[in-house]
Amino acid sequence: MSSDKLNKIISDTETLVKNFGRFYSGKLYIDNDLPENSVNTVPAEEKPVPEKIKKTGSGIIVKDKSAVAEIDIFGNESIKREEWEFSESLDELNSKINTCLKCGLGKTRTHFVFGVGNPKADIVVIGEAPGADEDAQGEPFVGRAGQLLNKILEATGFQREEVFICNILKCRPPGNRNPAPDEVELCRPYLEKQLKLVNPKLILLLGKVASESLLKTKEPLNKLRGRIHDYKGWKVMITFHPAALLRNPNWKRPAWEDMQQFRTLYEEITGKKITPVNNN
């Protein structure tokens, strides 16, 4: 092949790539209501919420029900969105992710621990991972640490049912070990979707592991406490995990100071006056 022909092919290809999006902005797929070999092009902005689309042997995209894919001009398929990402409520999200097997914890769990509480809460409380009691019941913070958390919230002026409570991980790590980095990253999109749906005024992180995992920091807990952090636009404060307070009661006083700061910040943000409960 002469150099002139090769240069012409390269030039034509570059032009095609440059203008492809202008002329083919829609998704090409086979509609189940049409004959097998019929195709239909629908502009992206006019399409309903996408379902899964897969490439067939012929290179055409076929609709399915678990993800959204795109095919480039060379026939390469890449997954862009999964079905759960289009969830419009916490219940819908839970129904679409509670069979997740993206990491090994899905094979060892008893229950998927999604979260519990007010779906439009001002406050989201986040721990690190479900424990044995949580794994057995499918609800976060139901053991001794959960009972202490309820008392801490009430003493601060909040009721458990008023907030939304969840964990960094949705499944219990065997032996209650700390979450592995890959487990955290695989589960992070689910947590972020929960936060988007709830859209709280404040996030309360419980303990070192939850704080390190969400904020991607190695700072010690004592340096993280007492400060207002930012996570993708949400204000975050940090205190001790209730399980740590059960092991070391000397930390209850600084934890209470954290919660007083948390209440003050909440009142400043919302303009609401909170009346704490005396749990002597």
* Outline: elongated
Rg for CA atoms? 25 Å
* Class from secondary-structure proportions: alpha/beta
Could you name the ranges where pLDDT drops below 50 across 5 or more consecutive residues? 22-65
Q: CATH H-level name of the largest domain... which superfamily?
A: Uracil-DNA glycosylase-like domain
Per DSSP, the total helix count is 10
CATH architecture of the largest domain: 3-Layer(aba) Sandwich
Terminal Cα span: 89 Å
- Percent of sequence in beta strands: 15-25%
What labels describe this entry?
280 residues; alpha/beta; Uracil-DNA Glycosylase, subunit E; 2 domains; 6-stranded mixed beta sheet; 4-stranded mixed beta sheet; 18% strand; elongated
